[in-house]
Amino acid sequence: MLAWMLVNAAVLLGLIAWVYGKFSLNHVGYARFFSKHAVFAGEEIEMVERIVNRKLLPLPWVRLESMMAQGLVFGEQQNLDIRGGEKFQNHISLFSLRSYRQIVRRHRVVAAKRGYYMLDSATMTAGDPVGLTRPSRRFPLSLTLTVYPEVVPMREVPLPAHSWLGDVTVRRWIVEDPFLTAGTREYRSGDALRSVNWKATARTGRMQVHRNDYTADHRLMICINLETHDRMWSAVLEPERIERAISYAASVAVYAMRQGVETGLLSNGWTFGGPKLPVRLDPGGGEAQLTALLETMAKLQLETAVTMHAQLDDELSGDPSDTDYLIISCHRGAELEERVDALRRRGNGVEWLYVEGEGDRRR
Protein backbone atom coordinates (compact mmCIF):
# COMPACT_ATOMS: atom_id res chain seq x y z
CA MET A 1 0.00 0.00 0.00
CA LEU A 2 2.77 2.42 0.95
CA ALA A 3 4.65 1.60 -2.22
CA TRP A 4 1.52 2.28 -4.27
CA MET A 5 1.06 5.65 -2.56
CA LEU A 6 4.68 6.54 -3.23
CA VAL A 7 4.30 5.62 -6.89
CA ASN A 8 1.14 7.73 -7.17
CA ALA A 9 2.87 10.64 -5.46
CA ALA A 10 5.84 10.37 -7.79
CA VAL A 11 3.57 10.26 -10.84
CA LEU A 12 1.60 13.26 -9.57
CA LEU A 13 4.76 15.25 -8.88
CA GLY A 14 6.10 14.31 -12.27
CA LEU A 15 2.88 15.45 -13.93
CA ILE A 16 2.92 18.74 -12.02
CA ALA A 17 6.57 19.25 -12.92
CA TRP A 18 5.81 18.55 -16.59
CA VAL A 19 2.87 20.98 -16.64
CA TYR A 20 4.85 23.76 -14.98
CA GLY A 21 7.92 23.08 -17.06
CA LYS A 22 5.93 23.37 -20.27
CA PHE A 23 3.33 26.04 -19.47
CA SER A 24 4.41 28.15 -16.48
CA LEU A 25 5.83 31.04 -18.52
CA ASN A 26 3.30 30.83 -21.34
CA HIS A 27 1.00 33.86 -21.55
CA VAL A 28 3.09 35.76 -19.02
CA GLY A 29 3.83 39.39 -19.84
CA TYR A 30 6.40 41.77 -18.44
CA ALA A 31 6.95 45.50 -19.00
CA ARG A 32 9.05 48.14 -17.29
CA PHE A 33 9.26 51.92 -17.76
CA PHE A 34 10.48 55.08 -16.05
CA SER A 35 8.13 57.93 -15.15
CA LYS A 36 10.40 60.31 -17.13
CA HIS A 37 12.74 59.84 -20.06
CA ALA A 38 15.25 62.44 -18.87
CA VAL A 39 16.11 63.97 -15.48
CA PHE A 40 18.88 65.99 -13.87
CA ALA A 41 21.39 64.28 -11.60
CA GLY A 42 20.07 64.11 -8.06
CA GLU A 43 16.40 63.97 -9.03
CA GLU A 44 14.08 61.17 -7.94
CA ILE A 45 11.90 59.31 -10.40
CA GLU A 46 9.73 56.22 -10.41
CA MET A 47 10.36 52.95 -12.18
CA VAL A 48 7.20 50.92 -12.79
CA GLU A 49 7.04 47.17 -13.47
CA ARG A 50 3.97 45.34 -14.75
CA ILE A 51 3.86 41.53 -14.55
CA VAL A 52 0.75 39.74 -15.79
CA ASN A 53 -0.33 36.07 -15.82
CA ARG A 54 -2.97 35.60 -18.54
CA LYS A 55 -3.83 31.95 -17.88
CA LEU A 56 -5.51 29.65 -15.36
CA LEU A 57 -2.28 28.08 -14.09
CA PRO A 58 -1.05 30.00 -11.00
CA LEU A 59 2.65 30.58 -10.41
CA PRO A 60 3.63 29.73 -6.82
CA TRP A 61 6.99 31.42 -7.25
CA VAL A 62 8.54 33.75 -9.80
CA ARG A 63 12.12 34.99 -9.79
CA LEU A 64 12.90 38.16 -11.77
CA GLU A 65 16.48 39.22 -12.41
CA SER A 66 18.02 42.19 -14.24
CA MET A 67 21.28 44.14 -14.40
CA MET A 68 21.53 47.92 -14.06
CA ALA A 69 24.30 50.47 -13.90
CA GLN A 70 25.40 51.70 -10.48
CA GLY A 71 24.43 55.33 -11.09
CA LEU A 72 20.77 54.62 -10.28
CA VAL A 73 20.06 54.25 -6.56
CA PHE A 74 16.96 52.26 -5.58
CA GLY A 75 15.18 52.64 -2.28
CA GLU A 76 14.70 49.66 0.01
CA GLN A 77 11.74 47.49 -0.94
CA GLN A 78 10.29 44.21 0.23
CA ASN A 79 11.13 41.16 -1.92
CA LEU A 80 13.90 43.05 -3.74
CA ASP A 81 17.53 42.01 -3.30
CA ILE A 82 20.17 44.31 -4.81
CA ARG A 83 23.71 43.00 -5.17
CA GLY A 84 26.13 45.72 -6.16
CA GLY A 85 29.37 45.45 -8.11
CA GLU A 86 31.89 48.05 -9.21
CA LYS A 87 29.93 49.19 -12.26
CA PHE A 88 26.66 47.24 -12.22
CA GLN A 89 24.02 46.13 -9.75
CA ASN A 90 22.07 42.88 -9.97
CA HIS A 91 18.38 43.11 -9.03
CA ILE A 92 16.66 39.91 -7.87
CA SER A 93 13.04 39.75 -6.74
CA LEU A 94 10.89 36.79 -5.70
CA PHE A 95 7.08 36.77 -5.68
CA SER A 96 4.03 34.67 -6.60
CA LEU A 97 1.47 35.30 -9.33
CA ARG A 98 -2.08 33.99 -9.21
CA SER A 99 -4.29 33.04 -12.16
CA TYR A 100 -5.33 35.90 -14.43
CA ARG A 101 -3.64 38.42 -12.19
CA GLN A 102 -1.52 41.52 -12.84
CA ILE A 103 1.04 42.93 -10.42
CA VAL A 104 2.21 46.53 -10.61
CA ARG A 105 5.37 47.30 -8.66
CA ARG A 106 6.67 50.84 -8.18
CA HIS A 107 10.26 51.66 -7.27
CA ARG A 108 11.61 55.02 -6.13
CA VAL A 109 14.90 55.69 -7.91
CA VAL A 110 17.42 58.49 -7.42
CA ALA A 111 19.38 59.35 -10.57
CA ALA A 112 22.61 59.82 -8.65
CA LYS A 113 25.04 60.12 -11.54
CA ARG A 114 25.10 61.75 -14.96
CA GLY A 115 24.89 59.29 -17.84
CA TYR A 116 22.83 57.45 -20.42
CA TYR A 117 21.32 54.30 -18.95
CA MET A 118 20.04 51.36 -20.99
CA LEU A 119 18.18 48.27 -19.83
CA ASP A 120 17.85 45.78 -22.67
CA SER A 121 16.40 42.71 -20.94
CA ALA A 122 15.10 41.02 -17.80
CA THR A 123 15.09 37.28 -17.07
CA MET A 124 12.13 35.56 -15.44
CA THR A 125 12.29 32.09 -13.89
CA ALA A 126 9.25 30.19 -12.59
CA GLY A 127 8.31 26.62 -11.76
CA ASP A 128 6.31 24.09 -9.80
CA PRO A 129 5.64 24.36 -6.04
CA VAL A 130 8.50 22.02 -5.04
CA GLY A 131 11.08 23.37 -7.49
CA LEU A 132 11.51 20.31 -9.72
CA THR A 133 11.43 22.45 -12.87
CA ARG A 134 12.83 25.95 -13.40
CA PRO A 135 12.06 27.21 -16.91
CA SER A 136 13.42 30.68 -17.72
CA ARG A 137 12.45 33.31 -20.24
CA ARG A 138 14.27 36.43 -21.35
CA PHE A 139 12.09 39.51 -21.89
CA PRO A 140 13.68 42.03 -24.29
CA LEU A 141 13.32 45.64 -23.19
CA SER A 142 14.22 48.96 -24.77
CA LEU A 143 14.34 51.05 -21.64
CA THR A 144 16.55 54.15 -21.54
CA LEU A 145 17.05 56.99 -19.12
CA THR A 146 19.09 60.13 -19.78
CA VAL A 147 20.52 61.76 -16.67
CA TYR A 148 21.66 65.31 -17.33
CA PRO A 149 24.59 66.78 -15.37
CA GLU A 150 23.81 68.44 -12.07
CA VAL A 151 22.96 72.13 -12.54
CA VAL A 152 24.21 74.35 -9.73
CA PRO A 153 23.43 78.02 -9.02
CA MET A 154 25.66 80.42 -10.93
CA ARG A 155 27.13 81.72 -7.67
CA GLU A 156 28.70 78.26 -7.22
CA VAL A 157 30.35 78.31 -10.64
CA PRO A 158 33.96 79.57 -10.22
CA LEU A 159 33.88 82.20 -12.96
CA PRO A 160 36.46 85.02 -13.03
CA ALA A 161 35.57 87.96 -10.79
CA HIS A 162 34.65 90.29 -13.67
CA SER A 163 33.19 87.75 -16.06
CA TRP A 164 30.87 88.98 -18.80
CA LEU A 165 28.75 85.90 -18.00
CA GLY A 166 27.79 87.64 -14.77
CA ASP A 167 25.61 89.97 -16.85
CA VAL A 168 24.82 88.33 -20.16
CA THR A 169 22.04 90.83 -20.79
CA VAL A 170 24.75 93.41 -21.58
CA ARG A 171 25.69 92.40 -25.12
CA ARG A 172 29.14 92.83 -26.60
CA TRP A 173 28.17 92.94 -30.27
CA ILE A 174 25.29 95.23 -31.17
CA VAL A 175 23.83 95.18 -34.69
CA GLU A 176 20.81 96.79 -36.31
CA ASP A 177 17.90 94.35 -36.41
CA PRO A 178 15.49 94.79 -39.37
CA PHE A 179 12.77 92.92 -37.50
CA LEU A 180 12.67 95.33 -34.56
CA THR A 181 11.41 98.88 -35.04
CA ALA A 182 11.58 101.88 -32.73
CA GLY A 183 9.49 104.58 -34.41
CA THR A 184 10.33 106.45 -37.60
CA ARG A 185 12.89 108.92 -38.94
CA GLU A 186 13.30 111.04 -42.05
CA TYR A 187 14.40 109.36 -45.25
CA ARG A 188 18.13 109.43 -45.98
CA SER A 189 19.91 108.72 -49.23
CA GLY A 190 20.50 104.98 -49.52
CA ASP A 191 17.47 103.87 -47.49
CA ALA A 192 15.57 101.02 -49.13
CA LEU A 193 12.14 101.79 -50.54
CA ARG A 194 10.65 98.89 -48.57
CA SER A 195 11.57 100.67 -45.33
CA VAL A 196 9.28 103.65 -46.07
CA ASN A 197 6.50 104.17 -43.53
CA TRP A 198 3.73 105.52 -45.75
CA LYS A 199 1.34 106.41 -42.92
CA ALA A 200 3.98 108.51 -41.17
CA THR A 201 4.93 110.08 -44.52
CA ALA A 202 1.33 111.14 -45.16
CA ARG A 203 0.94 112.46 -41.62
CA THR A 204 4.13 114.56 -41.58
CA GLY A 205 4.34 115.53 -45.23
CA ARG A 206 7.96 114.32 -45.32
CA MET A 207 9.32 110.97 -46.42
CA GLN A 208 9.59 108.79 -43.30
CA VAL A 209 11.20 105.36 -42.91
CA HIS A 210 11.12 102.77 -40.15
CA ARG A 211 13.86 103.28 -37.58
CA ASN A 212 15.30 99.90 -36.69
CA ASP A 213 16.05 99.01 -33.11
CA TYR A 214 19.21 97.25 -32.07
CA THR A 215 19.66 93.70 -30.91
CA ALA A 216 22.57 91.53 -29.93
CA ASP A 217 24.44 89.12 -32.14
CA HIS A 218 25.81 87.21 -29.19
CA ARG A 219 27.03 83.62 -29.27
CA LEU A 220 28.62 81.51 -26.60
CA MET A 221 30.71 78.39 -27.14
CA ILE A 222 31.26 76.32 -24.00
CA CYS A 223 34.46 74.25 -24.23
CA ILE A 224 34.90 71.26 -21.91
CA ASN A 225 38.48 70.05 -21.69
CA LEU A 226 38.69 66.50 -20.33
CA GLU A 227 42.46 66.71 -19.82
CA THR A 228 43.63 67.16 -16.24
CA HIS A 229 47.11 68.16 -17.45
CA ASP A 230 48.71 68.88 -20.81
CA ARG A 231 50.46 65.50 -21.08
CA MET A 232 47.47 63.31 -20.26
CA TRP A 233 46.67 60.17 -22.23
CA SER A 234 43.11 59.35 -23.27
CA ALA A 235 41.72 57.94 -19.99
CA VAL A 236 40.60 60.46 -17.37
CA LEU A 237 42.44 59.93 -14.07
CA GLU A 238 40.42 62.36 -11.94
CA PRO A 239 36.79 61.58 -12.82
CA GLU A 240 35.28 63.58 -9.94
CA ARG A 241 37.08 66.70 -11.15
CA ILE A 242 35.89 66.27 -14.73
CA GLU A 243 32.35 65.60 -13.52
CA ARG A 244 32.45 69.00 -11.81
CA ALA A 245 33.64 70.55 -15.06
CA ILE A 246 30.68 69.02 -16.91
CA SER A 247 28.32 70.21 -14.18
CA TYR A 248 29.68 73.76 -14.52
CA ALA A 249 29.22 73.56 -18.29
CA ALA A 250 25.59 72.48 -17.93
CA SER A 251 24.93 75.23 -15.38
CA VAL A 252 26.35 77.92 -17.65
CA ALA A 253 24.44 76.55 -20.66
CA VAL A 254 21.10 76.62 -18.83
CA TYR A 255 21.74 80.12 -17.48
CA ALA A 256 22.95 81.61 -20.77
CA MET A 257 20.17 80.13 -22.89
CA ARG A 258 17.50 81.31 -20.47
CA GLN A 259 18.95 84.79 -20.99
CA GLY A 260 18.52 84.41 -24.75
CA VAL A 261 22.17 83.76 -25.60
CA GLU A 262 22.78 81.32 -28.45
CA THR A 263 24.98 78.60 -27.00
CA GLY A 264 27.09 75.78 -28.44
CA LEU A 265 29.40 73.08 -27.13
CA LEU A 266 32.94 71.99 -27.86
CA SER A 267 34.74 69.10 -26.17
CA ASN A 268 37.68 66.84 -26.83
CA GLY A 269 35.68 63.90 -25.46
CA TRP A 270 33.30 61.61 -27.34
CA THR A 271 29.74 60.54 -26.66
CA PHE A 272 28.17 57.17 -25.90
CA GLY A 273 26.52 55.54 -28.90
CA GLY A 274 28.48 57.51 -31.48
CA PRO A 275 31.89 57.38 -33.16
CA LYS A 276 34.97 58.26 -31.11
CA LEU A 277 35.09 61.79 -32.46
CA PRO A 278 35.33 65.06 -30.51
CA VAL A 279 32.12 66.94 -29.81
CA ARG A 280 30.99 70.11 -31.55
CA LEU A 281 27.49 71.61 -31.48
CA ASP A 282 27.03 74.93 -33.27
CA PRO A 283 25.60 77.76 -31.16
CA GLY A 284 21.83 77.93 -31.29
CA GLY A 285 18.78 78.90 -29.29
CA GLY A 286 15.50 77.41 -28.15
CA GLU A 287 14.46 74.42 -26.06
CA ALA A 288 15.57 71.90 -28.69
CA GLN A 289 19.11 73.32 -28.58
CA LEU A 290 19.21 73.23 -24.78
CA THR A 291 18.01 69.62 -24.80
CA ALA A 292 20.68 68.72 -27.36
CA LEU A 293 23.38 70.33 -25.21
CA LEU A 294 22.26 68.56 -22.04
CA GLU A 295 21.87 65.19 -23.78
CA THR A 296 25.35 65.50 -25.26
CA MET A 297 26.81 66.29 -21.84
CA ALA A 298 24.90 63.35 -20.35
CA LYS A 299 26.45 60.98 -22.90
CA LEU A 300 29.97 62.43 -22.72
CA GLN A 301 32.47 59.68 -21.91
CA LEU A 302 35.43 60.22 -19.59
CA GLU A 303 37.94 59.60 -22.34
CA THR A 304 39.51 62.01 -24.81
CA ALA A 305 39.23 61.62 -28.56
CA VAL A 306 41.87 64.28 -29.30
CA THR A 307 43.91 66.79 -27.33
CA MET A 308 42.14 70.04 -26.51
CA HIS A 309 44.65 72.13 -28.42
CA ALA A 310 44.02 69.94 -31.49
CA GLN A 311 40.30 70.51 -31.05
CA LEU A 312 40.89 74.27 -30.93
CA ASP A 313 43.10 74.02 -34.04
CA ASP A 314 40.11 72.52 -35.82
CA GLU A 315 37.92 75.33 -34.49
CA LEU A 316 40.39 77.96 -35.71
CA SER A 317 40.39 76.42 -39.18
CA GLY A 318 36.78 77.60 -39.48
CA ASP A 319 37.93 81.21 -38.91
CA PRO A 320 35.50 81.95 -36.04
CA SER A 321 34.72 85.53 -35.05
CA ASP A 322 32.32 87.43 -32.79
CA THR A 323 31.94 84.43 -30.48
CA ASP A 324 32.57 84.15 -26.75
CA TYR A 325 34.50 81.02 -25.75
CA LEU A 326 34.37 79.73 -22.19
CA ILE A 327 37.24 77.28 -21.68
CA ILE A 328 36.42 74.95 -18.77
CA SER A 329 39.68 73.23 -17.98
CA CYS A 330 41.83 71.69 -15.26
CA HIS A 331 45.00 73.17 -16.75
CA ARG A 332 46.26 76.07 -18.87
CA GLY A 333 49.13 74.47 -20.76
CA ALA A 334 51.31 76.46 -23.16
CA GLU A 335 49.80 74.87 -26.28
CA LEU A 336 46.30 75.61 -25.04
CA GLU A 337 47.20 79.22 -24.22
CA GLU A 338 48.60 79.64 -27.73
CA ARG A 339 45.28 78.61 -29.31
CA VAL A 340 43.32 80.83 -26.94
CA ASP A 341 45.45 83.82 -27.98
CA ALA A 342 44.73 82.98 -31.63
CA LEU A 343 40.99 83.01 -30.91
CA ARG A 344 41.29 86.43 -29.28
CA ARG A 345 43.27 87.85 -32.21
CA ARG A 346 40.36 86.96 -34.49
CA GLY A 347 37.92 89.07 -32.53
CA ASN A 348 36.54 86.46 -30.15
CA GLY A 349 36.15 86.78 -26.42
CA VAL A 350 37.75 84.05 -24.32
CA GLU A 351 37.44 83.35 -20.62
CA TRP A 352 38.86 80.55 -18.51
CA LEU A 353 36.97 78.58 -15.90
CA TYR A 354 39.57 76.69 -13.92
CA VAL A 355 38.43 73.50 -12.18
CA GLU A 356 40.33 72.96 -8.96
CA GLY A 357 41.77 69.61 -7.92
CA GLU A 358 42.72 68.16 -4.54
CA GLY A 359 46.23 69.58 -4.86
CA ASP A 360 44.86 73.11 -5.32
CA ARG A 361 42.75 72.83 -2.16
CA ARG A 362 45.72 71.74 -0.02
CA ARG A 363 47.77 74.79 -0.94
Output the CATH homologous superfamily of the largest domain. Answer: von Willebrand factor, type A domain
- What number of domains? 3
Largest sheet: 6 strands, mixed
Total of helices: 7
Total beta strand runs: 19
Q: Give the CA-based shape.
A: elongated
Distance between the termini: 89 Å
Helical content, roughly?
Answer: 10-25%
Structural class comes to alpha+beta
A few lines on this structure:
The chain has 363 residues and is an alpha+beta fold.
Strand-helix topology:
Blueprint: H1 2-23, E1 28-34, E2 38-40, E3 44-53, E4 59-69, E5 72-74, E6 80-84, E7 88-97, E8 101-111, E9 115-126, E10 136-148, E11 174-186, H2 198-204, E12 208-216, E13 219-224, H3 239-258, E14 262-267, E15 269-271, E16 279-284, H4 287-299, E17 300-304, H5 308-317, E18 324-329, H6 334-345, E19 349-354, H7 358-362
Parallel strand pairs: 2-10, 13-14, 13-18, 18-19
Antiparallel strand pairs: 1-3, 3-8, 4-7, 4-9, 5-8, 6-7, 9-10, 11-12, 14-16, 15-17
Helix pairs in contact: 3-4, 5-6
Describe this structure in words.
Residues 184-269 form the DUF58 domain. This is DUF58 domain-containing protein. It holds the Pfam family DUF58. The chain has helices at residues 2-23, 198-204, 239-258, 287-299, 308-317, 334-345, 358-362, and strands at residues 28-34, 38-40, 44-53, 59-69, 72-74, 80-84, 88-97, 101-111, 115-126, 136-148, 174-186, 208-216, 219-224, 262-267, 269-271, 279-284, 300-304, 324-329, 349-354. By secondary structure, it is an alpha+beta fold. It folds into three domains: 29-148, Immunoglobulin-like (Sandwich); 154-172 and 217-362, Rossmann fold (3-Layer(aba) Sandwich); 178-215, no CATH class. A six-stranded mixed β-sheet has the order 2-10-9-4-7-6. The chain has a five-stranded mixed β-sheet with strand order 16-14-13-18-19, with helices on both faces. The chain has a four-stranded antiparallel β-sheet with strand order 1-3-8-5, with no helix packed on it.
